[in-house]
Design goal:
CATH class of the largest domain: Alpha Beta
Number of helices: 14
Helix content: 25-40%
CATH architecture of the largest domain: 2-Layer Sandwich
CATH superfamily of the largest domain: Bira Bifunctional Protein, Domain 2
Number of domains: 2
Radius of gyration: 24 Å
CATH topology of the largest domain: BirA Bifunctional Protein, domain 2
Mean pLDDT: 90
Largest sheet: 8 strands, mixed
Distance between the termini: 41 Å
Number of strands: 21
Low-confidence stretches: 401-421
Structural class: alpha+beta
Strand content: 15-25%
Length: about 425
C-alpha cells in the first residue's frame, strides 16, 4: 500500500482500524469519528434545506418483508439472517433502507396535497460481502448510507430530479469535486416489473435528467432490480473515477408494498418512489476524501482544525483560556502543552495533518494575542478575540450556491420548470 492509501492514512492519522475479529467492520477512533460526524452533519443540514425530513428505521426485520419487496430474491445470499425462536420466524439485518421508508409512508392515508413526501436516513446496513472483496473503508460488511426517498406523483418527477441534482452539485463542489460525469443505468437481466413499466421509468428518468441540464452516457443493464438510475461519477486528484451519488426511479416497490395516495379525483393512486444518495456510503466516501486530499482535508472538514501549542509551562493557563474561546466559537482545537520545544510541536502537528497551529508564549500572554501559523507557512499575530473570529470565519463550510433552490418549501415541486438547474 502506498502512503496515500486511505488505510495507511487511517493509521498515520489515528482515524480508524480494522481487525480479524470484526472483518469488514470499522473501529472508529476519536479523530476519525469526529471526521465522520462533521461530514454527517454537513449532509444532514443540506438534506434539511432540500426539504427532507430525517427518520430512523429498525435494523432487524422479518424476512417476509424482504421477500415481499423482492430484496430476498435479489440479495438473500448476502443478507444476515437468523431465526426468532420465540415467534418461529426468520429475521434479517437490513441490507438497505428503502422498504423501511415505505412502511413510514404507509402509516396513514396520504393526500395528493401532501406530495412530495421526502424522507432521509443515515441508514446502518449489513451485507455479507466475500472476504476477498473487502478493502478497508471502500468495501465493508457494515456501512451507513446517506439514504433518501421521495414519494410523489408522476408530475413531480422532473422537478425532484432537478432539485436533487442541485443538491449534488453543491455538496460535491464543497468537498473538492467541482465536476462529475453522469450515466443512465438501464434495466438489468434480473429485474422486477414488466417491460412496459421499465419503458416508462427509463423514458421518465432520461427526460428528467435532460431537463436538469445533465449530459449522460447509457450503461445498458446496470440499473437496480426495481428501476433505472442515474449514477454520478467523481474524478479524484489521481484521475480515478468513483461512482458515488445515485438517483433511482422506482415504479415497482410502491406496487409491491402498496404505497399509494388519494388523488384529486378522490381515487387511490400508486406513488412514484425516487431513491437518492449523495455520498452512497459514508465509509467509502471518507476513504475517497482521504485519498483525494492526501490526508490534508479542508479546514472546515478536518477532524482537528487547530493545535494550540504552548512555548513554556508558564503559558498553560492562557492556553486554556484560548482553548475555551475556540471551543465557544465552534472550532475543533486540541492543546499541546507537553514540555517539548515549539519546533517539535509544529512537526508533530504537521504529522497529524492539522491545518493550523496557534503558538502561545509569554509575549502573547502579556499582550493578549495569539500567533497563528497556517499550513502554507503564513504567520500572523492578532488580538485573541480578533484571531478567534478570523479562525471561525475561515473554518465555515463553503456557502451553498444552490440555497435559493433548496430553501423552497417542501411541497412546491409540482412545477418542473421552476426547479431546473
Amino acid at each position: 500500500m502506498n502512503d496515500i492509501d486511505h488505510r495507511v492514512l487511517g493509521n498515520k492519522l489515528d482515524l480508524f482500524h480494522q481487525q480479524e475479529e470484526g472483518a469488514g467492520m470499522v473501529f472508529w477512533h476519536p479523530r476519525g469519528w469526529e471526521l465522520y460526524r462533521v461530514l454527517e452533519e454537513f449532509i444532514r443540514a443540506r438534506m434539511r434545506r432540500a426539504g427532507f425530513r430525517e427518520i430512523r428505521t429498525p435494523q432487524l426485520l422479518a424476512r417476509s418483508l424482504w421477500e415481499k419487496s423482492g430484496h430476498w430474491e435479489k440479495f438473500g445470499a448476502a443478507m444476515y439472517s437468523l431465526a426468532d425462536a420465540e415467534e418461529g420466524r426468520a429475521l434479517c439485518l437490513k441490507p438497505m433502507s428503502c422498504p423501511c421508508h415505505v412502511q413510514v409512508f404507509n402509516q396513514r392515508v396520504r393526500s395528493y396535497r401532501e406530495l412530495p413526501v421526502r424522507y432521509s436516513e443515515f441508514g446502518a446496513c449489513h451485507r455479507d460481502e466475500p472476504s476477498g472483496s473487502l478493502e478497508g473503508l471502500k468495501r465493508t460488511r457494515a456501512f451507513v448510507q446517506d439514504d433518501a426517498h421521495v414519494f410523489c406523483a408522476h408530475a413531480h418527477i422532473e422537478a425532484e430530479v432537478a432539485r436533487f441534482c442541485a443538491l449534488l452539485r453543491g455538496v460535491y463542489a464543497d468537498l473538492g469535486f467541482p465536476s462529475f460525469k453522469v450515466a443512465l443505468a438501464t434495466r438489468p437481466v434480473q429485474r422486477a416489473g414488466s417491460d412496459e413499466v421499465w419503458d416508462r421509468a427509463e423514458a421518465a428518468l432520461a427526460q428528467a435528467a435532460r431537463a436538469a441540464g445533465l449530459e449522460f452516457e447509457v450503461l445498458e443493464g446496470e440499473g437496480a432490480f426495481y428501476g433505472p438510475k442515474l449514477e454520478f461519477h467523481l474524478t479524484d486528484s489521481r484521475e480515478r473515477n468513483w461512482q458515488c451519488g445515485t438517483i433511482q426511479l422506482d415504479f415497482v416497490l410502491p406496487e409491491r408494498l402498496d404505497a399509494e395516495f388519494v388523488n384529486e379525483r378522490n381515487e387511490r393512486e400508486r406513488s412514484v418512489m425516487i431513491h437518492h444518495a449523495v455520498l452512497g456510503s459514508m465509509e467509502r466516501f471518507i476513504a475517497m476524501l482521504l485519498e483525494h486530499h492526501e490526508g490534508w482535508l479542508p479546514l472546515w472538514l478536518a477532524p482537528e482544525q487547530i493545535v494550540v501549542a504552548t512555548i513554556s509551562d508558564a503559558n498553560v493557563d492562557y492556553a486554556q483560556e484560548a482553548m475555551q474561546m475556540l471551543d465557544d466559537a465552534g472550532l475543533r482545537a486540541v492543546l499541546d502543552a507537553r514540555p517539548e520545544r515549539l519546533e517539535k510541536k509544529i512537526v508533530d502537528a504537521r504529522e497529524k495533518q492539522v491545518p493550523i497551529l496557534v503558538a502561545l508564549g509569554s509575549r502573547d500572554q502579556r499582550d493578549r494575542t495569539i500567533s497563528i501559523r497556517m499550513r502554507d507557512g503564513q504567520q500572523q499575530t492578532l488580538p485573541i478575540a480578533d484571531g478567534v473570529e478570523q479562525l471561525r470565519a475561515a473554518s465555515l463550510p463553503p456557502p451553498n450556491l444552490n440555497d435559493a433552490l433548496l430553501r423552497r418549501s417542501p411541497n412546491d415541486a409540482a412545477s418542473p420548470a421552476s426547479a431546473r438547474t
